[in-house]
Specification:
Elements (H helix, E strand, L loop, with lengths): L7 E3 L13 E3 L1 H6 L4 E3 L4 H4 L2 E6 L5 H9 L7 E3 L11 E3 L5 E3 L22 E6 L11 H17 L5 E4 H4 L13 H9 L1
Parallel strand pairs: 2-6, 4-8, 4-9, 5-8
Antiparallel strand pairs: 1-9, 3-7, 5-6
Helix pairs in contact: 4-6
Bound molecules: zinc ion.
The site of zinc ion has 4 residues, from loops.
């Protein structure tokens, strides 16, 4: 079984990837809520973004994850819908402006392989939620993996300092296991890098 606390790969620093558009739609409810659950970055986004964190919702729906933003408890930049949702196979939802630091990793979390052990990862990162129940039986769809990889490729073309793609579990191993052992990290990595 894969260990989600090991999920990490780094992007080639000297890449010259094309800037590609992303098949995203703004989720109006989340977008409106983002002002109350995200912070200003301390540097322009093009400089600031160094990390992308992969999460899974541990819930059944996009709406359920967005309700956490409406309550002002946490936030994330995109959500990848589940198999039984109408957007599945079509587009991901943009839920928070990239220029803002979403609240998706606890402030004290750090890993020596991520930005030399920096804390406050939210300031340096973009966060992606994938709708998945995280019960050990709910498998990610091929489209969810592909759509998540496309977000990484989009961001890698846009943010020159983006270096690390990492699981939430790696950054917060005592509290979090997402995206979970069922997430096909090797296939995902190959979709991004190959
Ligand atoms: Zn998470």
């Amino acid at each position: 079984m894969a260990d989600p606390t090991e999920f990490q790969f780094d992007l080639p620093p000297d890449r010259n990837w094309a800037r590609i558009p992303l098949a995203e739609e703004i989720h109006q409810t989340a977008w409106a809520a983002a002002g109350g659950c995200a912070s200003l970055r301390r540097a322009p986004q093009e400089e600031a973004v160094r990390v992308i964190v992969i999460h899974a919702t541990a819930g059944a729906s996009t709406a359920g994850a967005v309700s956490v933003m409406e309550e002002g408890r946490a936030s994330f930049h995109w959500i990848v819908p589940d198999k039984d949702e109408p957007a599945h196979g079509k587009h991901v939802w943009a839920t928070c402006p990239e220029r803002l630091a979403a609240w998706h990793v606890r402030k004290s979390c750090a890993h020596p392989d991520i930005c030399a052990g920096a804390t406050n990862i939210n300031r340096l990162s973009l966060g992606i939620e994938i709708v998945n129940r995280q019960n050990g039986r709910d498998l990610f769809s091929d489209w969810q993996i592909k759509a998540t990889a496309e977000i990484i490729r989009y961001a890698a073309g846009k943010y020159p300092n983006l270096a690390h793609v990492v699981s939430h579990a790696r950054l917060d191993p005592t509290r979090r296991t997402d995206p979970g052992a069922n997430f096909p990290w090797a296939d995902f990595r190959a979709l991004v890098l190959d």
